[in-house]
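Possible race condition, two jobs.
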Amino acid sequence: MGLILFFLLTKPIKFYADSLFYDGKNKILYLYKNVRIEYENITLFSDTLLFYYEKDLIYAFGNAKLKAGKDSLKGDKIIYNTKTQKGKAVKGKTKVEKGFLWAEEIFRVDKNILKAYKGHYTTCDLNPPHYYFVAEKIKIIPKKDIIAEPVFLFIKDFPVLGLPFWIFPATKKRKSGFLSPRPGRNSRLGLYIKNLAYYWAINPYMDYTIGFDLYERKGITFLSNFVYRKYKLLEGNIKGTFTREIEPKRERWSINGIHSQNMPFGARLQAKLDFISDQKYATDYSEYRPQRLKNEAYSYVALSKNFKILSFNLMADYRDNYLTKTKEMTVYNIGLNFYGKSIGPLRVSGSATVLRKIKKDTLGKKEIKNGNLNEGILMQNTLFNFFVVETKVSATQTIYPEDTLSNKFPVQHSLLFSLTSAITFYGTSIIKPPFFDKFYHFATLNFGYSYSPGFKSLHLEGSQPKNPSSSLNFTLKNDYFAKKEKNKYPLLNFSISGNYDFLKKEKKLSNLGINFTIPLPKGFSGGGRAVYNPYSGKIEQSFFRLSFNFPLFLTDILLPSSKKLNSNGTWVYSKRPEKEDVSFSGSISGNITENWSFSYNFVYSGEEKRITSQNLVLNRNLHCFSLQIRWSRTMKFWDYQFRIWIKELPDLKIERNFFETILPSLQE
């Protein structure tokens, strides 16, 4: 292998090749086979190379490859100027961060900038790729952006989208730029396009998004979202929307956010904002069912600090309940909780709070002010080395500023004594049952006694006396199972619970609650609950559930997919004195082929005798991109979307609006 060193100023160029020839007259260096040149941080490989010494030009032919640091550029022919460090690749190809670029001509116009003409870009590493973008002009700024104009998206060589220009992120870091819009259509808003927004990465700790949504039937909604985070110090976000509707003409808004911060001296601050102009704002515009069913707005701010012997809490909140039309505001709620301390067999604890709350409803306004002291004593004893008895005494003093008779600081006292314990019995079958070794029965009785002397009412607005109470609460749990060698097989689980009030004049025993679970063959489960009236001998309420979850039979044979379709469902029957109802919910999901999957779920109401909710999703998964078709309907509300997104470029989505001409419209 030959080696020649040329010196340009003080920087040498190293030439390696199997054959070297220098034309002194024309000042051209010829290199053949296994050619490699090195200049600063640049290395160039090729089969044949011509170096024009006076012009500082290098022509490389055949398997030409230019490397500059971690970047590389391939082409049928590469032309490079050693002085300007600019070059050109004919029919070139290069890797750009997340993807690959190939074009008729690729120019290196700067150390950090490439330009291409009649270029193709993809993140798919297959040959041929599943998809690619085609653009007449492309500009690549490594680790920043890829700018193309005009740009066309091809999937399997079929054009599906054209845009005047597009900017692809060429970095894994957060970066400012326009976000991908999300078109769609539903029964309330008609056609819409959401998220026409700009994302501003302010610094590594915060970012800000501003934009708007357009609705065919409603108008325009302006959006704002500020997000911040400093590791182990604070984090949160504040979102706001403002909608100017065209029919009817009105303005609506919402603001919500969260904040969490570690304060000096170990204190912690937490807050939540949730305010909205009217109850139906979220119902009209939200994409998600839980938000559409939202029935209250709740905001709060809380400051807490833990000490060695106690914790301190300061809280204020505001709650607006749309269903009950009540508004509650806690002006302040200051609390001290003293950690429990053991004194011999006793464990003593306590707490103190100061509260001021304002409540408004359709009847008027009410203000509550009080202070509260609570002391508790807990003692545990083991009786007969058999079961543990837990005894607790708690006393509470509630102090008010003034009563209706102008008495200062009246105090309301309350006392509660409770005793709780549990005991477990078990038994086994004497005779060996068929198919099993033994049957087992475990019974656990939990019981507790509580007593309170009650208290008289004070001269306070809304104050009510509390009668003495003396009651016994109990729950009997029963578990039955069979055993075969080392394996256990559950047979039945049920419990009975109730209470007995010693101070009642009649019907001292309460209704009995019965809960049970029945193990069924694999894939099935069942259970229920009931309320039994011991005096009438009737079941007043009942609830039964039967569920299943198993693969559909023969789907692995009938469908060209190695994965089976799964189905699950739940049948529910409920009966109350005033109402009887049956409902059924079910779903089917899985792969239809190796790449196509779907899911369908629905809810059937026996009371309305129709399907009240259903949702269908089709997914197509390929090597580097995915497709999704979604349709949903809840009562009269429906929505459908069509999306294609590239896995390596998750911000880029082509939604249903682009296919409006080839997809049928759904009628209301």
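Job #2 (started ~2 s after job #1):
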Amino acid sequence: MIPAIARLICEAILDLSQEESFDEQQSLLCRLMLEQFYRDLPAALRSEMNAIPELNAYFQIEIIEAVNLSVFDPEHCPIFSAPEFLSAIAAAVNGDEAEITASNSELVYRIHAVHRSDTVLDLHFTNLATAQTFAMRDDALVLASENPKVREQVLRANSAWFDCDPSTHEAAIAEIVATTDFRRRIEQANRWRRESAKCFYESFQQKLYEDQEFTTEDLIPTSSAGLLRHFYLAPRLSEPISFGERLETTAVSMLAVNDLETCLERVSYFPTKLPQHLKEAFLDLPPDERTQLLERLVVKLTSPICQLHLLELAVSCPGSISIAQQLFNSLLSEDGKLQFQLFATILQLVDEEFSYWLEVRQWSPLIRLAITWAHTSQLYNLLYAPDVDVEAFIQELNRLAQVRQISAEILDRNIKLWNDILSPRRLNRVRLIMGGMESIFQDCERSVLEAIGVERLTNLAVRTLGDQRFLDISLWHDEHTLASDSLGALWGGNQRRNLALVLGEDLAQQGTPDSLKATVERAIEMLETEPTNANQWNLLACILGDLPIYADLVERLSYLAKTTNFVELYEADPTIAFVALRVACDHTASTANEELRAKLEAELIAIARVIEIQERVSQNDNLSAQLLECALKVAVRANDPRGTSIFLNRLLEQIATAWYQFSDIYAENLALVTLNLPIDQLHGAWTINLKLRALRSY
């Protein structure tokens, strides 16, 4: 994509450079304007364009490869020609002394190598004018050695550069060792090092230690390929196997080249059950070693996902009940609640950053979900410390997140991502903990559950109103039935079967899929004759959310939405009307019912006219937000960002015309959104932007 765009831009620039109608002054002005345009391009595009000689000649650009060693010698800030520098390094690495002159001064430096071991050496640079010496170490430069054995030893000593499965690792080493040109060898090794996710995490950790601050860009690795290699995954899974089966195979490969602790650490980042192969290897350890390993992992793996995995390991070992109690208490505590909020904030930030990364958008939905969660969990473990002010940290992350005004996928609805139980936007603490605990405790003996204090889950899952007890409202959301579960989430599936152990039969029954479906069916039936019944609309919104309704109830909900007069409902009670509209609009997006879509579009515009007439000034901000939300929901066409954008912009134009104050509220915000969205989501966006700006008051 980048090379193709770079070529198109270059062709346009070169065409303008040859424009015959320009006089000398116009040609100069054109070149100056194009130079500024070129300088404003993203670095990746400029780098690609630098390889085109005609463009460099037009801009009078001279490409010079240089090595800047100012960090080692800040007093003289020496800069060397890259070819001369590498040749001198090669001579030093192979036992000779070499001299090199800085290109930005007349200073001459003598270079010699001081070997620390067969594969580790320091390069000493002596300023011949001042006799001052500074040392630098970069293992990649040792690849200038003429000895293939030394080159291989260096590469094997720096396995973090490769961070991949054993076969890929061996092939990469063989290729680099066999390369005859030493410059090419160094370039190959540095490319692997730049792409290595392990090197990225180590570098990020070092930055946190030294600088105590970071930006959103620091949270995202430089290479999506390196991130996939880190977790032993491919961009797409072609074999007809589940992710759980793939993770079992991955665990075997990992364990072949890593110790058990490293393997458990890495797979614990995934929001799925631990591979059986690793659990068996853990249980085969002597009791003392198991306990020591668990204690080390508890210190390192602090994310809620990792804690659930460690809890699973702890309850499987009779001698680790105290560790299980510690983990259980941490997850349910007030501090655990804050830590969950921190995790959710990082997850949302990572997901939004990934949405703008072209390479990530080319992954399969399954891989995208797996890496988003795993990368978030690993970042959390690096970022969180017991002494951190979590609330302040969350606020800082939210501030950083403002760099992105909106996800790049807001109008590009990939159903396999959107409707998955692991969609980051579905993350809920109560559902995660209750579902995760159900999965972990399902085979535990009652004595183990009692020792851990599992009855405390009641405080998390149950609410009391008067003398009646109900499941927490989040457990009424039937994502276990209605959402997809492509990875096999640790808290996915029908985990409610064992809730009775903790909550009792009556409460457990409230959250079963059969009970929730029956509640939806009754709600639709009641609303057909009593459309103003707020409780029933709220039940539908709570249980269904924005997920597709049960297959055999699709037509009944469609009929209800078609026969409900939402304008009259709004005039009677705006709050009920917008709950009902959200249910109807989500249903329309799920079913792609164009007849229903047209009806809802007309009613949203009619409601905008009613608001204009009523002039509910004190409620305008809230009303406009709800109207915009419903417009977005009804506009969505799955996997069709162009169609969604065109429909949404047409609808917003009509709403803005019907209700003038809508323009005052959203003109600037929507303008910012259009600056951030990818081009395939901006069809028609300029018309609504212009209309909002024209209609707003000053």
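The beta strands are 66-68, 79-81, 98-101, 108-115, 121-127, 133-136, 462-465, 468-471.
Logs attached separately.
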